[in-house]
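Explain this protein:
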Amino acid sequence: MEFRRLTGADLTSLLELYRQLDADDDQSTPEQSEKVWMQIENDPNIQYFGAIENGKVVSTCYAVYIPNLTRGNRGICFIENVVTDKEYRKRGLASKVIDMAVEFAKEHHCYKAILQSGITRTEAHQFYENKGFSGSSKKAFDMRFE
């Protein structure tokens, strides 16, 4: 098992894994995703991390560093889209990719990392709390656009 930052060569496998994240997600075409990936690869403030086995991305998350004018100008890291292939769960893979994202946040001198999870995913919430994230320090709101 290899743990590393993902590259464009991992995109097809990453998109396949994302199908397990949300079955109702309206995925873009590979061509559209390639264009977005080019933007991601050219932005050092966005990093995708993964566990890869035999060329297949089996666990992943991404982290975005956001500069900040409060807290002594220490930034914020937003961690999102944590998913592990159903055949590879309960092996500590998500824990390791999250650790990579947290290390990315520390390298950028962030004062906090934010991780959101679906409201009904209580097992995942316990996992995140065991990793050191607090589910009671803030209340998150989102606004969805069609």
About this structure: The CA atoms of residues 68 and 142 lie 20 Å apart. The chain has a mean pLDDT of 93.
